[in-house]
Write a structure and sequence with these properties.
heterodimer; A: 3 helices; elongated; B: alpha+beta; five-stranded mixed beta sheet; two-stranded antiparallel ribbon
Chain lengths: ~70, ~160
Amino acid sequence: VEPRPPAFLSVSLDPSPVIEAYKKDVDRTLLRENLRLTTTERVRKMVAALRFAETVRRSRVKADAT
Amino acid sequence: VTDFERLLTVLTQAGVDFIVIGGFAATAHGSAHVTVDLDVVYRRTADNLDRLAGALDPLHPYLRGAPPGLPFRLDPDTLRQGLNFTLVTQAGDLDLLGEATGGGTYEALLPHSEVRDVAGLECRFVDLPTLIRLKRAAGRPKDLERIAELEALRQEEP
């Protein structure tokens, strides 16, 4: 008996009205910018954004404490 | 902040068979969202469980969100007896998945993955259509925005 293929493979990639509605708000300029980068550059850009967000979060905690 | 490059280095240098999925895979494909943890699907063969446990041991993995002091040790037996582990390590948050939603084992995902260079490391990532399928299969409302972005990426890819 052939093993059944995993369920994720049967998930359709056809357009969904809900996702199409969300897609209108996607900033494609950011995506085009990222697609010009290498994978390493994409990763480092994301990590820099994450670190900046963490710095902002910590500064807010300090401000709240004073 | 999770040190993604350190985690990937540790896993790769130990020869662990794994496939990156989730938000970090989305980043690799060009997503503009940030992600705070690394999600990997690992191969559940005995020798890979040995390599995985050995690679992570120096990073002192512990169950994320669990109270301190539990007698938890991520050794090959622990990996064998469990499946999916959400961990905190000295290099940040790491989710080890024996199976992603919808039957996404290492073997099932392997034909739908691609090797990418990250900081000189050759790492295997799930491909973009499969990442979308996995997120759709998870069916979480919070993923709708991410799925929309990934589908837009598919349209924008050269």
